[in-house]
Structures
1.
Amino acid sequence: MTASSATRKRRSAKLAQFSRHPLILFFRGFLRDPAMVGSVIPSSAKLVDHVLGPVDWDATRVFVEYGPGVGTFTQPVLDRLGPDATLVAIDTNPDFVDYLRREIRDPRLKVVRGSAADVRRILEDLGHDQADYILSGLPFSTLPPGVGPRIAAETAAVLRPGGAFLVYQVSARVFDFIRPEFGRIDRGFEAWNVPPMRLFWAYRLAPDGASAGGG
Ligand SMILES: C[S@@+](CC[C@H](N)C(=O)[O-])C[C@H]1O[C@@H](n2cnc3c(N)ncnc32)[C@H](O)[C@@H]1O
């Protein structure tokens, strides 16, 4: 091999490595489909801690994540989840799905290419009839018409009584979708994220009025 072809090979290997970097993959996903990805960079560690704060991990057997992207929440959820629990991560973007399957090798993680609107069928296919928690990073305000309300209704239908829907969003629009479906909705705000996020913890109340958040 000549010196110049060796240099070319090194350069193209570096370029391939660079293009597989999660930030680049995420940004490319945004450029291809801004309405579906909804953000130019993944969420901050502060946001992750804030959103997951109220979760009762000991009581969690099935955790679902909508729109995992390049896995900013996925690994922190796995770090907190018990050894026998399952995390089902659902994303419409095939590049993100391939990336997660390749990069996170954990038998508790099931990565599904599909829409959150089909959560009921997806869980059934995996042998689960309900979820304890569902986390959403979906850009609700830019989803196609009708998809947001359908996802909110399907989410409420599949959560166990006392379970919770954890949502982080730039816009408050999602509140209109979740309000009819959930008995109690707590709200918060996280400034340490680009962009800052509104947070919603929506509880499906048990018949005795109890929720996973202890209220
Ligand atoms: C703002 S990104 C969130 C990425 C990551 N969770 C984070 O916090 O950095 C939104 C993600 O939702 C996915 N998505 C959009 N519509 C979806 C749908 N109907 N069902 C599942 N995933 C969807 C996109 O492909 C993208 O990965």
2.
Amino acid sequence: MIDIETETRFAKQKLEDYIVNLDNAKHDRLREYRLQSQECPVCYYMIHHIAGSAFTGYTCAMCKEYFSWPNTATPSLCHGCAKKDNLCIECGSEMFEYKDVVVTIETREKNHQDYLKKEEQRKRRNTRRRELYRKRKEWLRTPVRESHCCPS
Ligand SMILES: [Zn+2]
Ligand SMILES: [Zn+2]
């Protein structure tokens, strides 16, 4: 049983969040805070880790030292290493800007191919389902032989 109204609201909310986040990333609306926390636009605006509010220990992927983080969504690097090489503390990429990202024709093409593949898989699944359904129907129509096991 699904609650259509709730699901619709959730789905729309998801898209709405996505649009707002992307818009914030595009205009780098919280640039000052983003740079302070040493995060790339993707990690800062697009990925919202669901974090438990408990101090959590982690090892920096560069200096291998042990650090403490105020929640459970620990980063990849420590602040020192990230700052020194100007990397994103979360994912370890260079601190790029939104405008550095160019959507290439290859990306569009790959995306399109992914959709086509997904559609193809769906079609195959449906064919298989139809086939099973047909077999089951046939089976139901097969007359049951009289049983000889228990003569009266
Ligand atoms: Zn480090
Ligand atoms: Zn990042």
3.
Amino acid sequence: MRIDGCSALVTGAASGLGLATARSLAAAGAAVVLLDLPGSPGEEAAAALGGRARFVAGDVTRAEDVQAAVDAATALGPLRIVVNCAGIAPGQRTVGRDGPLPLEDFDRVIRINLAGTFNVIRLAAAAIQATDPVGAAGTGADAGAGSGSSAAESSVSNPGGPDGIPAPSAPAGIPERGVIINTASVAAFDGQIGQAAYAASKGGVAAMTLPLAREFAPSLIRVVAIAPGIFDTPLLQGLPESVRESLAASVPHPARLGDPADFAALVRHIVENPMLNGDTIRLDGAIRMPPR
Ligand SMILES: NC(=O)c1ccc[n+]([C@@H]2O[C@H](COP(=O)([O-])OP(=O)(O)OC[C@H]3O[C@@H](n4cnc5c(N)ncnc54)[C@H](O)[C@@H]3O)[C@@H](O)[C@H]2O)c1
């Protein structure tokens, strides 16, 4: 699906992976709504992206806040791209020095990372379902729009490059309504000591990807999750340089921390590649996290 001409909603967009994603989608021609907590630097971030970006202050766990962001995105154009980046990553042992982890602490991580992501998906998917499909005529973001387009009606030749292979960004007659991209974590698969709640929340994000993709397939909406390894975001920027260096060296190749731009590049590819659906993609330089 083409990015230009779409409206996009990015959560957690005032910082880190969400901010890089909002920048990248705006540069590719999308109107972008940045949803982040009140008090976050979201207003400045949106202003830096120019006239087709808007900040909506809100909490992903609150239905009315998310609906306001969905409405703001819909007002800017047909909402087709949703990227869930809002999240928290506290390290908390299940039984620590002060005894068992309070259940409220576990609940909070699940509530923001998993239920918050689902809250955005359910409200945004309803808005995406109300749009006309695109890509049927193979030109422009809204070309060929109109309910009732079918793959058969819309088949179009895509000459592609000199090797005859169509570029994934060139619609090859596949009608689509939108793409929902969620942020899991490698902790979903190799969670460390102290990450029981975080790993459970990200495991939930990974696990709901397929049932959501299956449910939304008839609506021509794809759902994909990204499981980042260790990325250089404000989440890590507070750590001492020596710790950052040792984390970077633990990545097999490339032996560096992930750059938020690497994440944003994958988001763009997922939007543009119509065959990516229903799975969680690790973006981690081959790292497998040790127990601690
Ligand atoms: N940085 C990494 O190494 C890494 C690795 C794996 C997964 N992740 C995941 O990527 C996502 C983004 O992380 P990041 O590194 O960019 O962190 P970050 O702290 O830089 O950004 C997260 C943003 O989410 C916002 N946020 C938090 N709770 C929210 C809520 N309830 N409602 C709305 N916004 C809220 C924060 O204000 C912040 O701007 C998170 O889900 C995180 O778990 C990060």
4.
Amino acid sequence: MAAQQITLQERPSGASVDEQIRLIAAGGAGDTCSSDLADAPWSFDQVPGYGPGSSMGDVIPAGAPRQGELPVRYRTASDEELTERIVAAKQTLGDRVVILGHFYQRDEVVQHADYVGDSFQLAQAAKAHPEAEAIVFCGVHFMAETADLLSGPTQKVILPNLAAGCSMADMADIDQVEDCWEQLADVLGDLDTPDEDGLLPVIPVTYMNSSAAIKGFVGRHGGIVCTSSNARTVLDWAFQRGRRVLFFPDQHLGRNTAKAMGVSLDQMPMWNPNRPLGGSSAEEIAEGRVILWHGFCSVHRRFTVDQIDKARAEHPGVRVIVHPESPMAVVDAADESGSTDVIRRAIEGATEPTTFAIGTEINLVQRLAAQNPQHEIFCLDPVVCPCSTMYRIHPGYLAWVLEGLVDGTVQNQIEVPDAVADPARVALERMLEAKPS
Ligand code: SF4
């Protein structure tokens, strides 16, 4: 199967992020947030925490999945050998397997993907291949769960490394969200009964970057899922049905979207799950329009207004585009903001040679730079600091799960239980049906 065009068609010619980090660790020019990134991810499978990279300072939940030991033949294989093994296994499996690669994956993995895209594009790609027995999702845990929700009942979704979670998704735990809901009911009354205008007191909206359990919660409570591409449409949908929105897990996407819709900042109380009433007063909750969960992406939180100022000073005429998971001040200071797909299309659509400073994950930025040599493209953050959990997927694990399939063994299957899957699909279907107003 040739790589599909949501997507990349060939491996870029420039140095990959992995190669660049190895050069930095060996004393070359540049800087990285952790020289441990030069080590293979299996070095960290027995170590608690998210591992090196942007989430290394985040607290991982106690029950977060851990990856077992990768067999030694994959840990000791050379890069070339792993490539040969993956190519051979893919050839043997043919249409029985589809490999999905997220934009933020290392090039060494992306080169084997049948589809490359953002989380939702990849979930749709999974849905488009009912003939495949297995879907190998080179991304993070919530993405594999979403693929399982949307794929056929007999298809197996595989996450090559179980430690590839997402620190942002982990910031909204189902127990915390249930507790928040109860506290909101104490302030706002019965949350399931509409008022005289037919509006519910609060509509829960979860970003795609959340666990299936959270999507299920949202589905059970009249809520909806959003992506970074459709957050505004989804908030419109929610405001047609409720007085206010509880938005999780990413405060920045919620704030940036609501602000662009004209919601004032004092109508966006914060909900910190570790504090009574989320740290807000009952009045602030009652008067709020969008209650923001205290979550964030540690990749996109690295971007700053100072970086934008520096880019403009050093590159007059630079076009600054950032992802809406970035802090509000950064989005406000940028020329544009949008999802990974918006960023990709903006670059590919520029008809004149242009300098772009991009605020999103480094693997995607460097790949876009290699694919678009007519432009100068660089990451706003000068420190090479990839997503810790995307980094956990490596060709060694990909070779392991593919050769397992060749031998008839399904490893690292991600399965969402029906009790969660049914309401989670309802929330996803609402999103698919929501139309821009
Ligand atoms: S880039 Fe951010 S939101 Fe995406 S997987 Fe990494 S931590 Fe999670």
